[in-house]
């Protein structure tokens, strides 16, 4: 059911809602800027010191996440001043869960970005064996990743649990979900939408000064 909801949600144009408005109804799940934007265990791509932070909640088997991925990565790279926080949110079943765990485990060999790109580029259905093959083909030490996953299982599971709690508190009906500074977006953003979201975030920051 969750997979179906995720697919339907991605068909809807992205909707922006102020983060602060949702945080008031977050229950016992903390949606503070510190918790969402600066979780020390969450992988960060782009410019770690960027003036705009984007948080992406995604699944490696989500077709809409895969479609958005090249534009998101290119916009972040071209801009040069965007901090991209990756929130693995595996909701498409066991293979997605394994992919998320192995991608996070790859961060222990400074290869999260490489793992993320490789898994997002895969067009076939994921299995555990396929995940290992994809990561290996991308130049990641799969044996080490498995060992790092085992050695850091508690920390990795805690991170994925926090991601899930935050995504649920944000009321994301599925993947992808984006947080761009003060606004959240339900659904995908194309290149134009991403550029506009970043521009709006900077305008909002300037208006507060």
Automatic annotation (TrEMBL):
Stretch forming the signal peptide: 1-23
InterPro entries, sorted: DSBA-like_thioredoxin_dom (IPR001853), Thioredoxin-like_sf (IPR036249), Thioredoxin_domain (IPR013766)
Domain of life: Bacteria
Gene (UniProt): dsbA
Source taxonomy: Bacteria, Pseudomonadati, Pseudomonadota, Alphaproteobacteria, Hyphomicrobiales
DNA damage as UniProt keyword: no
GO molecular function, one term: oxidoreductase activity
Organism from which the protein derives: Hartmannibacter diazotrophicus
Gene3D superfamilies from the UniProt entry: Glutaredoxin
Annotated Thioredoxin domain residues: 11-154
Name of this chain's protein: Thiol:disulfide interchange protein DsbA
Pfam families registered for this protein in UniProt: DSBA (PF01323)
Keywords in alphabetical order: Disulfide bond, Oxidoreductase, Redox-active center, Signal
């Amino acid at each position: 059911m969750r997979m179906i909801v995720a697919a339907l949600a991605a068909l809807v144009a992205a909707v922006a809602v102020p983060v602060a408005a949702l945080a008031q109804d977050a229950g016992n799940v903390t949606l503070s800027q510190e918790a969402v934007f600066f979780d020390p265990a969450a992988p960060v791509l782009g410019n770690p010191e960027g003036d705009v932070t984007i948080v992406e909640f995604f699944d490696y088997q989500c077709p809409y996440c895969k479609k958005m991925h090249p534009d998101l990565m290119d916009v972040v790279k071209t801009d040069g001043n965007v901090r991209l926080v990756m929130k693995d949110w595996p909701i498409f079943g066991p293979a997605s869960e394994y992919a998320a765990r192995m991608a996070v485990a790859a961060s222990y060999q400074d290869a999260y970005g490489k793992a993320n790109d490789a898994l997002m580029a895969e067009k076939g259905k994921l299995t555990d064996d396929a995940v290992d093959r994809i990561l290996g083909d991308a130049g990641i030490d799969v044996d080490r990743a498995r060992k790092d996953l085992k050695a850091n299982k508690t920390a990795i599971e805690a991170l994925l649990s926090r991601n899930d709690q935050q995504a649920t508190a944000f009321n994301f009906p599925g993947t992808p979900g984006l947080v761009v500074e003060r606004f959240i977006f339900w659904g995908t953003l194309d290149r134009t939408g991403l550029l506009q979201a970043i521009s709006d975030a900077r305008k909002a920051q300037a208006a507060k000064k």
